[in-house]
Amino acid sequence: MDVKRIDQGLSVTGQLRPTDLSEAARLGFGSIICNRPDGEGADQPGFAEIERAATEAGLDARYLPVVSGAVTDADAEAFGVAMRALPGPVLAYCRTGTRSTTLWSLDEGRRGRPLSAILATAKAAGYDMNGVARRIASGGRVPTDGAEASHTVVIVGGGAGGIAVAASLRSRKPDLDIAIIEPADVHYYQPGWTMVGGGVFEPATTARTMASLIPDGVRWIKAAVAAFEPERKAVILEGCRVVTYDRLIVASGLTLNWGGIEGLGETLGRNGVTSNYRYDLAPYTWELVQGLRSGRAVFTQPPMPIKCAGAPQKALYLSADHWRREGRLGNIEIDFFNAGPVLFGVKEYVPALMEYVERYRAGLHFGHTLTRIDGSAKRAWFATKAGDGSPSTVEVPFDMIHVTPPQRAPDFVRASPLADANGWVEVDQASLRHTRFPDVYALGDACSAPNAKTAAAARKQAPVVAHNLLHDLGYVRAPHVAYDGYGSCPLTVERGKILLAEFGYGGALLPSFPSWFIDGTKPSRMAWFLKERMLPPIYWKAMLKGREWMAKPKAAA
Prior knowledge:
The protein is an alpha/beta fold.
């Protein structure tokens, strides 16, 4: 009996035998639902046998047979009624558990649960419900309407990657039919939040209305994506609205998993707990830095991948530099807890960074993952390994803690046919085209390419996707171009100096400037000037406008 838990009230399994019922009772189930019609298989016990054994084991049993591949709306409704009437938890079975999971999914859709959550829950149990995604989104019923809209190019996401690739496409072919699907009203320049947390930028300078940034001639569909149907060239929106496409570009970004750390949600923004990874919290970081006179300041970094891998230590450096300038550094103990094994993934930049770690007397703790936090008690707990390799937990007191949350692809991406084993949109790392669905491209944080997840990467990826997509549509004759994995991380080691890390696939150094102007392996004031004064206007006025300054794509080898 291979039992797979769907949620607290339901588990599913394949065909049960009468001898399995006593074990089901021992596992704590209160009822059995049979979703397999009698006589479907030659070696299948009839429901009467199952019911008799269930009764002997003290379990309720219900017979709700469903023909494979022909689940009706009435079937799903009856399943939901039985689930709420029978003693729980319920163990439902069919031949493999798929029909039972389908019935649960459709019933959850009827009850208003978000499609992405239903798909993700089912996938976690080992069941792919994308085949009935449109029905789930339609309230668990067979939809009667067709596509709401159809466009040549549909872009999912209005962040850095989505707006940039739309602008790059329009700059190459101004009459191209493009739609952007994005539910948010505000677009953020997220690389600026580190500077907000360091007292350099005002928060308002990092935000603009989405409407002001959507390129002219591009339709804005203000909605949330629920699922993808790449076989049908369709995107399902929440509410079962459907948009079809000739080409799809996924630039959905990633999700900050605040709930992945126990207790974090209850204390964020107070009790000395902050994060530069949220617009409304970055000012609180600066407030804490200014107010801390003595005590312990803790900075954390979760397992990779994360958005801007240098951001956790950027917060540390700017904070420590302020305390040094104010003469408080000797009274403040600084610790950096990193889930990874090294300070920075490209070795050429580590020596300069270590000089600042030593200057600020920061303690480095590798292989430590933040798992729980109690803000009111000013305590944090990290999972690590003891000297013998066994799991261990370390309790750390703090007066201030800057938390970088664990990160993952959005649920509607992770549960979709587009995802790889890790949940990211599966693309060829050079062309950024999907490896299994040739009509699909992806860029930015959501794609599987093994580059650093930074806005600088999206700036270089957007022209690659635009060129290759238009080539595929027959509008561009020049050969395909390739993305080299470029990413940039301006490491703010002190106020007024930055270590400009620029690198590509395999950690190859990819400097944009000659070393006499900016040597990326050494902190410089020129790099700070670039970060503070030049990069914001380059972002707003070039990258998001299709002006590819220093971002022209190169032909594929």
